[in-house]
C-alpha cells in the first residue's frame, strides 16, 4: 500500500468568540481576522511538515484547494505543489484536488499541472474535484451546471494533455479555438487522475468507466461510507463495465494520530479534531448544499429542517468509533488500518497528520511517530492482506 | 377561480397551464417560488379577466426542456407561447422573477403586449442593494423577509411543510438557480434596453419588501419614466398576499384602463 500525507493547511484557530459572532466559517468570515504574519509563519511550517514526510519515506504528499475560508489556506494548490516540487526529491505530489470547473478557463490549470509534472519529472498526481458547495458562492459559478462543467473541464484538460495540438475544443461551457499546451505533461499519456469524494455513486460511475479507470478516494467519512462506495466501485466495474477493478483504483483517506498509548492519543488529538468537525464546517446549510450541486435528497433535508442540519456536535470518541479518524497507539493504528485494508483492499491510504488547530511541534511529533512506528507496516500491505470482494452484497445497487 | 388545469404542448415542450375567467386576456408570470399562496389573487383577477397562469418550463409541474439555459430562453419561449396559443394581445403581470421575465419579453417584442404590471420585480441591480440571498437563507429567514405582518409571519413559521411543499421548493429552487444564480436575480444587460418598453407599465411594491427593497420601484421608474408606481404600506415581497383587495384593485383597474 502507498501512503500519502495530506494537508489542509488550516489557518490557526480563530477564537470561539469570533466564530460565534459570524454565521459562517466559509465565504463570509471577515478576512480582517487574517494576520499576514501568522500566515507567513504557518505556511512555512506546514510546508516543512510536508517536506519532512518526503524525508521520512511517505510515498506522496498532498495539497488541496479551498477558497475564502480559514478552513484551508490553499486557494491555489498550484502554489503549494510548486513550492514542494523543488524541495521534495522522491515522493509523489498529489493535488487533491483541483477544482477545474470553478475556473472560467480550466486550460490554465492544465498548463500549470503540466509544468509541475515536468519540473518533478513525473511526480504529479492530478485530482479532479468540483469544489465544496460553498465555493459556488465564491466565484458565482452556477451550481446547477456543476456536473456538466466538471465533466467538460475534464475532457478539455485531458484532451489538452493527450491530443496533438493545435485543435479547437468546442464545448457548451468551454470553447477554446486553439488548444495546444506547452509543456505537454511529463508522464504519458498524462499524470494519474484521482477522484476524491465524500461519497457519490455518480462520481464512481464516471471514474470507473473503462476509458478512465481513475482512482476513487473516499475521504473523511465514517468507514461505513468507504465500505459502501469502494465496494460499489468494484461492483460497477464488474457488473456494468465488464472488468475487474484492481485495488490500484481505490483509495481511503482519514486523519490519523499516533501516541504511546491509546488514551494519550485521544487526549492529545481531541481539541484539534473536535475543532475541525465542530467549528470549521460552520456555515448555513444552504451554502453547503446549493441547488443542483447536491442531490435533491440533500436539498429536501435543508428546506424541511426547522433547525440547522449542520449543528450536530461530534466527540472524538464518536469519530474514532466510526473510524472517521484513526487514533491510538502504534499497535492500535496499525491494527485498525490493516483491518480497513483487509476489508476493502485499497492501494492508497491518504493520511492527514496535522488537523484542525494542531500546532506545528505536535504535528511534527505525530508525523515522526507515524513514519517510524506505523508507515512500514502499512507499506507492506498488499492484496495478500485483502480478503477479496464478495459481489452479491450490494448487487442490487448496480442493477437499477 | 373555477380553473381548468391542463398540460399544453408547445413548440418548446409541455407546460402546465391554469386558466380561468372571462374578459381581457391576462398572462401571469410567477416568481422564483412558483404560485404558492397566489390563489386568492388569481380568484380576484379571474373575476374580471381570462387569466392564464403557466408553470414556467422547469418550475412547478412543467418539465425542464433541453434548451433552457437562461432567462432569454424563457422570454423567447413565451413569445412563441402567446402566438401558438392564439391568445391575441395580452396584458402581462409579472411577480418578482416573473417581472424580470416580463421585461425580457417586452424588450424583444411588445407586438402582442397591451400592458405590463410588475410586482416586486427583479432583473436589474442597484449597486450596493442586492436581492436577498434566497439560496442560502434558512426557511425562517425567508419567511421573515417575505412578509411584513408579524402575525402572518408567526402563522407561516408555525406551518410544517408537507412532502408536496418540499418537492415544489426543491424543484423551484433548482430552476431559479439555473436562471438567477449569477448574476444573482438580474441581467446586467437589461437596464440599457429598458427604453424599448413603451407599452403602458405599472410598478407595484410592498413598502416592507425584505427580498427586493422598494428602492427598486424608484429605479425602475427612472428607467421606464412613463410607468405608474404604487407602493403599498404594510406589505412585503408578496403585496397581493398582505393587501389583497387594494393590490387586486390597483392592478385590475390599470389593466382595464389600458384595454
Summarize this entry quickly.
The complex is a heterodimer of chains A (400) and B (259). With 400 residues, chain A is an alpha/beta fold.
Structure description:
Chain A has 400 residues and is an alpha/beta fold. Chain A contains 15 helices and eleven strands. In chain A, the strands form two sheets. Chain A has an eight-stranded parallel barrel with strand order 1-2-3-4-7-8-9-11, surrounded by seven helices. Chain A has a two-stranded antiparallel ribbon with strand order 5-6. In chain A, helix 7 (223-239) links the parallel strand 8 and strand 9. With 259 residues, chain B is an alpha/beta fold. Chain B has helices spanning 39-48, 71-84, 97-108, 139-146, 150-158, 163-180, 215-223, 239-242, 244-257, and strands at residues 4-10, 13-20, 25-29, 50-54, 90-95, 113-119, 201-206, 228-232. Chain B has an eight-stranded mixed beta sheet, with helices on both faces. The two termini of chain B are 21 Å apart. The A-B interface holds A 136-137, 140-145, 284-287, 290-292, 296, 299-300, 303-306, 308 and B 135-139, 161, 166-167, 169-170, 173-174, 176-178, 181-184.
Compute the number of helices of chain B.
9
Main pleated-sheet profile of chain B: 8 strands, mixed
> Helix/strand-derived class of chain A?
alpha/beta
Taking pLDDT < 50 over at least 5 consecutive residues as the criterion, the unreliable ranges of chain A are: none
Report the uncertain regions of chain B. Answer: none
Q: Determine Rg of chain A (CA atoms, Å).
A: 20 Å
| Cα radius of gyration of chain B in angstroms | 17 Å
Interface with most residues = A-B, 23 and 19 residues
State the end-to-end distance of chain A: 33 Å
Query: Helix and strand string of chain B, N-terminal first?
Result: EEEHEHEHEHHHEHEHH
Helix content of chain B: 25-40%
Q: What is the count of β-strands of chain A? A: 11
Amino acid at each position: 500500500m502507498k501512503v500519502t500525507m495530506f494537508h489542509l493547511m488550516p489557518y490557526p484557530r480563530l477564537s470561539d468568540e469570533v466564530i460565534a459572532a459570524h454565521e459562517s466559517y466559509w465565504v463570509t468570515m471577515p478576512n480582517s481576522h487574517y494576520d499576514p504574519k501568522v500566515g507567513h509563519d504557518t505556511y512555512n511550517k506546514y510546508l516543512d511538515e510536508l517536506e519532512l514526510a518526503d524525508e521520512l519515506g511517505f510515498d506522496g504528499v498532498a495539497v488541496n484547494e479551498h477558497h475564502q475560508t480559514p478552513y484551508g489556506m490553499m486557494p491555489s494548490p498550484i502554489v503549494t505543489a510548486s513550492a514542494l516540487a523543488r524541495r521534495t526529491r522522491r515522493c509523489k505530489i498529489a493535488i487533491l484536488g483541483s477544482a477545474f470547473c470553478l475556473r472560467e478557463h480550466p486550460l490554465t490549470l492544465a498548463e500549470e499541472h503540466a509544468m509541475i509534472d515536468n519540473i518533478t519529472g513525473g511526480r504529479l498526481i492530478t485530482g479532479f474535484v468540483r469544489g465544496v458547495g460553498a465555493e459556488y458562492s465564491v466565484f458565482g459559478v452556477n451550481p446547477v451546471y456543476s456536473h456538466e462543467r466538471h465533466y467538460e473541464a475534464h475532457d478539455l484538460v485531458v484532451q489538452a494533455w493527450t491530443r496533438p495540438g493545435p485543435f479547437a475544443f468546442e464545448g457548451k461551457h468551454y470553447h477554446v479555438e486553439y488548444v495546444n499546451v506547452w509543456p505537454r505533461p511529463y508522464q504519458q499519456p498524462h499524470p494519474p487522475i484521482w477522484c476524491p469524494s465524500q461519497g457519490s455513486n455518480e462520481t464512481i460511475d464516471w471514474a470507473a468507466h473503462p476509458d478512465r479507470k481513475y482512482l476513487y478516494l473516499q475521504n473523511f467519512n465514517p468507514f461505513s461510507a468507504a465500505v459502501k462506495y469502494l465496494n460499489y466501485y468494484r461492483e460497477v466495474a464488474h457488473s456494468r463495465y465488464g472488468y475487474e477493478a484492481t485495488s490500484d483504483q481505490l483509495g481511503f483517506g482519514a486523519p490519523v494520530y499516533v501516541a504511546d498509548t491509546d488514551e494519550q492519543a485521544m487526549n492529545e488529538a481531541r481539541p484539534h479534531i473536535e475543532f475541525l468537525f465542530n467549528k470549521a464546517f460552520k456555515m448555513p446549510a444552504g451554502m453547503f448544499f446549493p441547488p443542483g450541486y447536491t442531490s435533491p435528497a440533500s436539498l429536501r433535508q435543508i428546506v424541511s429542517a426547522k433547525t440547522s442540519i449542520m449543528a450536530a456536535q461530534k466527540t472524538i470518541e464518536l469519530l474514532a468509533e466510526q473510524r472517521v479518524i484513526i487514533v491510538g497507539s502504534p499497535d492500535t493504528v496499525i491494527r485498525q488500518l490493516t483491518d480497513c485494508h483487509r476489508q476493502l483492499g485499497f492501494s492508497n491510504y491518504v493520511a492527514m497528520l496535522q488537523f484542525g488547530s494542531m500546532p506545528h511541534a505536535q504535528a511534527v511529533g505525530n508525523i515522526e511517530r507515524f513514519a517510524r512506528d506505523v508507515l512500514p507496516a502499512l507499506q507492506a500491505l498488499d492484496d495478500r492482506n485483502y480478503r477479496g470482494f464478495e459481489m452479491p452484497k450490494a448487487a442490487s445497487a448496480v442493477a437499477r | 377561480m373555477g380553473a381548468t388545469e391542463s398540460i399544453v404542448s408547445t413548440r418548446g415542450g409541455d407546460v402546465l397551464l391554469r386558466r380561468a375567467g372571462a374578459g381581457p386576456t391576462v398572462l401571469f408570470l410567477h416568481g422564483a417560488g412558483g404560485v404558492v399562496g397566489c390563489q386568492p389573487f388569481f380568484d380576484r383577477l379571474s373575476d374580471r379577466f381570462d387569466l392564464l397562469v403557466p408553470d414556467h418550463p422547469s418550475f412547478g409541474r412543467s418539465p425542464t426542456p433541453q434548451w433552457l439555459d437562461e432567462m432569454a430562453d424563457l422570454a423567447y419561449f413565451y413569445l412563441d407561447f402567446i402566438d401558438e396559443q392564439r391568445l391575441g394581445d395580452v396584458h402581462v403581470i409579472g411577480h418578482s422573477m416573473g417581472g424580470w421575465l416580463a421585461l425580457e419579453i417586452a424588450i424583444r417584442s411588445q407586438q402582442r403586449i397591451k400592458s405590463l404590471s410588475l410586482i416586486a420585480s427583479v432583473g436589474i441591480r442597484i449597486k450596493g442593494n442586492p436581492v436577498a440571498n434566497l439560496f442560502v437563507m434558512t426557511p425562517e429567514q425567508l419567511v421573515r423577509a417575505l412578509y411584513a405582518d408579524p402575525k402572518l409571519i408567526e402563522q407561516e413559521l408555525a406551518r410544517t411543510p408537507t412532502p408536496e411543499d418540499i418537492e415544489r421548493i426543491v424543484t423551484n429552487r433548482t430552476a431559479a438557480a439555473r436562471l438567477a444564480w449569477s448574476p444573482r436575480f438580474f441581467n446586467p444587460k437589461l437596464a440599457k434596453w429598458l427604453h424599448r418598453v413603451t407599452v403602458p407599465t405599472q410598478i407595484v411594491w410592498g413598502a416592507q419588501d425584505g427580498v427586493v427593497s422598494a428602492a427598486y420601484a424608484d429605479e425602475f421608474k427612472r428607467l421606464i419614466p412613463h410607468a405608474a408606481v404604487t407602493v403599498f404600506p404594510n406589505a412585503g415581497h408578496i403585496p397581493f398576499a398582505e393587501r389583497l383587495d387594494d393590490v387586486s384593485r390597483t392592478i385590475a383597474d390599470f389593466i382595464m384602463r389600458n384595454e
